[in-house]
Specification:
alpha/beta; 434 Repressor (Amino-terminal Domain); Glucose Oxidase, domain 1; Rossmann fold; 10-stranded mixed beta sheet; 28% helix; globular; CPSase_GATase1; glutaminase activity
């Protein structure tokens, strides 16, 4: 940062004035001081108030010497550079939101989860890649995360199911990775200052224009207001019949029963498998499907899938469809983005979390039973409980930060959860939700 943070705060009139201007707490401003950095999303307001320019915030030099052995760089919007060793594809990502995931396993499922579109994933667990990759653990046909960050170099696969190593798999998917990064320091930065914009660069010629990369990250508007569901959704309806996986038989074959239309805002395959194994005949339809498109299949129930981006942006076309389904009296079950969209359709609002919830160790309390579930999560937005109208009941709450994790409206036969019951972190703590949906359909 070219202009010292103390000088910036002095120009703003102190901590309280800075907090009021940027809409954060005084505690957040104190964290800025201790970290020596202000999150880039606040720069425009501060520049307007002080007359400072982007160069006064960015600490990137015109040129920088590449450290010995470094072949890749993770460049943050505030000019911070994390050097490391590149692997996967020679590429430079588009500006992305940098987040962290606390899962110790399931990195292949994480990277292929469409909900990670527009993001670079930092894994807090140091050993990523040691079980290789295989076709069965794909949650979608491709990788949707834009890049990944790890502490240690990946090793040769040590699992009998592996058909490829992590580096080759990423290269085939045209996705770059960077190892050798102090992921603890990076995670603390995200935790304390929020998820920053970043660019991951692994150039084949080994040349870096750090200032240009930092400016690309700083100029990106971020995920707020961005509808990504249309980009990751299917384009035509199709039927899904595979059930869940078992060691003895692989993926089960299902005959179906209850007719369920799954609206694909970025659906993970294992959600569709869980529905099929619960006794549902699943028809998947595109995110932009209208209520008429959905009801044409004569469903016993409608499922609203997970997905990426800002729910408020996706809601412009999804909410009218959901409201049309509710008006027809058809039961609805939503997960993740589907939860946020259902809440919006019922009259609630959503907001952007500072750092999001991502990982397989998230405790959630079911207020209807008093039980605590260990859940898997991946979301950067949340439902504002205070905005929910009368008749909508809060059913689940996060024990990390108290944010909303589930709702239901009994009179309308609809319910949803923020977390991912199909990901089995408990491993079966949340499996009851699919049975509840089947029971709701009668």
């Amino acid at each position: 940062m070219h202009t010292p943070i103390e000088e910036i705060l002095r120009r703003l009139g102190g901590n309280e004035a800075a907090a009021q201007l940027t809409g954060v707490s005084p505690e957040a401003v104190r964290k800025w001081r201790s970290a020596g950095s202000i999150p880039p999303r606040h720069w425009p307001a501060i520049m307007a108030a002080t007359g400072l320019a982007w160069e006064d915030f960015s600490g990137v030099a015109e040129s920088a010497e590449v450290p010995p052995g470094a072949t890749a760089a993770l460049v943050l919007a505030d000019g911070s550079v994390f050097w490391g060793r590149g692997f996967g594809a020679f590429a430079t990502t588009k500006p992305s939101e940098l987040c962290f995931s606390t899962g110790m396993t399931g990195y292949q499922e994480t990277l292929t989860d469409p909900s990670f579109a527009g993001q670079i994933v930092t894994f807090t667990f140091p050993h990523i890649g040691n079980v290789g990759t295989n076709k069965e653990d794909m949650e979608a046909p491709q990788i949707f995360a834009r890049g990944l960050v790890t502490k240690e170099d990946f090793t040769a696969p040590s699992n009998y199911r592996a058909t490829n190593d992590l580096g080759s798999w990423l290269k085939n998917m045209n996705i770059p990775g960077i190892s050798g990064v102090d992921t603890r320091a990076l995670t603390l930065r995200i935790r304390d200052l929020g998820a920053p914009n970043a660019v991951l660069s692994f150039p084949e010629d080994g040349k870096f224009d750090l200032k240009a990369l930092a400016k690309q990250a700083a100029d990106w508007a971020g995920l707020e207001g961005l509808d990504l569901a249309k980009d990751v959704s299917c384009t035509q309806p199709y039927n899904w019949t595979d059930g869940t996986w078992s060691w003895e038989n692989g993926f089960a074959e299902t005959n179906g029963g209850k007719r369920v239309v799954a609206v694909d805002f970025g659906a993970k395959r294992n959600i569709l498998r869980s529905l099929a194994s619960a006794g549902c005949h699943v028809t998947v339809v595109p995110a932009t499907s209208s209520a008429e498109d959905i009801l044409r299949h004569k469903p016993d129930g409608v499922f609203l899938s997970n997905g990426p981006g800002d729910p408020a942006a996706t809601a412009t076309y999804a909410v009218p469809a959901i409201q049309g389904v509710m008006a027809a009296g058809v039961p609805i079950f939503g997960i993740c983005l589907g939860h946020q969209l259902l809440a919006t359709a019922l009259g609630g609002k959503t907001y952007k979390l500072e750092r999001g919830h991502r990982g397989a160790n998230q405790p959630v309390k079911d207020l209807t039973t008093g039980k605590v579930e260990i859940t898997s999560q991946n979301h950067g937005f949340a439902v504002d409980e205070k905005s929910l109208p009368k008749g909508v009941e809060v059913t689940h709450v996060s024990l990390f930060d108290g944010s909303n994790e589930g709702i239901q409206a009994k009179e309308k036969k609809v319910f949803s959860v923020q977390y991912h019951p199909e990901a089995s972190p408990g491993p079966s703590d949340s499996a009851y939700l699919f049975k509840r949906f089947v029971e709701l359909m009668g």
